[in-house]
Amino acid sequence: MSLLEVEDLAVHFGGVKAVDGVSFAVEEGEVFAIIGPNGAGKSTIFNLISRIYEPTRGKIRFEGRDITALKAHQIAPLGIARTFQNIELFDHSTVLDNLLMGRHAHKGTNFVSDILHLPSVRRAERAHRLEVEKVIEFLELEAYRRSMIAGLPYGVRKVVEIGRAMALGPKLILLDEPASGLSVEETRDVSFWIEDMRRVMGLTVVMVEHDMSLVSRTCDRVLAVANGKPLALGTPAEVQADPQVQAAYLGASVGAA
Ligand code: ADP
Ligand code: MG
């Protein structure tokens, strides 16, 4: 059984077929990429998996369970975390507080025990902090833990966005363009972290990414999409060599010129 299975997934917005018949399966421990020109439907696939968008048709399964009808707030507790292409952090909170908020889905305590400061609450709080400390160490964010998000360089905010998703302690992490806007050095760091997410943390990773060298370095398999439709699925080398994929990118760059 695959960890994540997407079958004939589609969502149409009025006349726009943003995603139109996409199928793929991601195995546990795999690093999987979705590539394609701008507007291909990549972020929309993530929005469908995280149940922000309602599919027009198709099925999504996680650990064999059909999650197509679940609500967005029911997704994180299953162990699916995501980052957003446009960084969704609380700008006027610290790095530490943003990471702690990333653990929100695990809050098993209720309001009454919260205000009474019961031992169970203090224990849970300590466990949350320990998990967050692991993420801070993993992503080398020690120097920024008390910094306000708003004052941080873009590259650091991008890493905190990954940290917020990791803090959940997920099984599956969806990364939407983790390297966009980063320098060559920062992109290299991201590729090491993705490798270690799998190797050290045992995570399964699905990422949307434009940087083909990052994709080739870190990913086992790649799905290419264009105009909401799947073009090719295979190893990074196979997909890059696919004539339909090359034509889609050429069409996109000609269109953009
Ligand atoms: P990308 O591959 O660049 O991430 P997107 O998934 O963001 O592309 O978008 C794919 C297409 O779907 C685009 O044409 C976009 O305008 C459209 N789209 C995405 N979300 C919506 C929405 N909520 N309403 C209408 N159109 C949308
Ligand atoms: Mg996108």
Summarize the structure.
Helix content is 38%, strand content 23%. By secondary structure, the chain is of the alpha/beta class. It has two domains: 1-79 and 170-257, Rossmann fold (3-Layer(aba) Sandwich); 94-169, no CATH class.
Q: What can you tell me about this protein's structure?
A:
The protein is 38% helix and 23% strand. The chain has 257 residues and is an alpha/beta fold. It has helices at residues 42-49, 95-101, 111-116, 119-138, 154-167, 184-199, 212-218, 236-241, 243-256, and strands at 4-13, 16-26, 31-35, 57-62, 65-66, 80-82, 172-176, 204-208, 221-226, 229-234. The protein folds into 2 domains: 1-79 and 170-257, Rossmann fold (3-Layer(aba) Sandwich); 94-169, no CATH class. The protein has a 6-stranded mixed beta sheet, with helices on both faces. Residues 13, 16, 18, 36, 38-44 line the site of adenosine-5'-diphosphate (ADP). Magnesium ion is lined by residues 42-43, 85.
